[in-house]
Fold this sequence. Notes:
5-stranded antiparallel sheet, 9 helices, 14 strands, 22% strand, alpha+beta
Amino acid sequence: MKQGEAQNRELLQGLGSSIRAAAGSDLVKTERGFLCAAKDLAPEVPFQVCISAGPGLIALGTPNALASLGASPYAPAPQEPGPVLRLLAKAPGFGRVEATVEGKAALKVSGRLEPEDPAVAQQVEAGILEGLKELDAQAEKRRAVMATALGEVKGSVEKDPEAPARLKTAAAAATAEKILDPRGEYAALRSSFKVARADKALTLELTIPEGQVRRFAQLDAGLTTVGTVGILSAIAIPNFIKYQCRSKASAGRLELTIARNEMGIYRAKHGKYPARLEKLDYRPSTNHYTVCARSGCLPGAPPAAAAACAAALASRGAGPKALLLCAAGDILGDGNLDVWLVEEDGVPESFRSACQ
């Protein structure tokens, strides 16, 4: 919007010429000094929509409504400080709506609804409050889930002797709130939201934080302290998951060590290894892994784990009587199996890791 009425009228005339040139037809025409949609463009619409230029504003409405404005009572567009944008609308049979955006760093958005029927304001208020209640419930659910998962990951990282000290420090400082809302902008936005009703009028207000405004405008070239914490959390969380996975994977190495020792005890007693694993007085101490030999797996082995071990065992060229055991488990619950192998005199080695 330009400052003067003449400039705004020139702007509208240029807009109309551009539309007619691009369309190759008179989609818009000048009616009573206003730029209007052609009457034959949508004959089923009972009214014609026009645009009128004024000092510091451009109004949208029917020709009669625009003509009733007469000499515009509005002042020229204000300079800073002042509203960035102000919208006014009035619909017959419904009421009046006003929206204002003001500010430069953070933006304050205000709205006011004045319906002709007071019940409308009450219904709109009830709908907004119910939506906010549902939004808060979802946010709390996300926070609770993240807090539980983060607690488990922190425990795994703290117990992992191979976890770097810096990662342990980052894990200890991390909170569900910092991960979900690293800049604190959602909390600020939510706390700024206000809704109130007085008589027929309903007012709403919220403030968009400065950081969000900068990113919307693609001007966020720096990193705030809170933003840095958020990025560090984003880097650390995948590592949390990785070290938690490694903690669970260590159970596969342990199971194979126990199974190999039990096989050695059986051989010392009977002079040979058992034909099948179920002859051993051994059962895995965890339900994460299935243990298999070339002759088969322990009873109740999941088909996917048994197939993974069969492929791993077949990949080794040792003779059929040589001891070779496998452990396979879906430790993350995503179908990506973690597979270990151990030979008679060796130590368990990872055949395929689920923690990559």
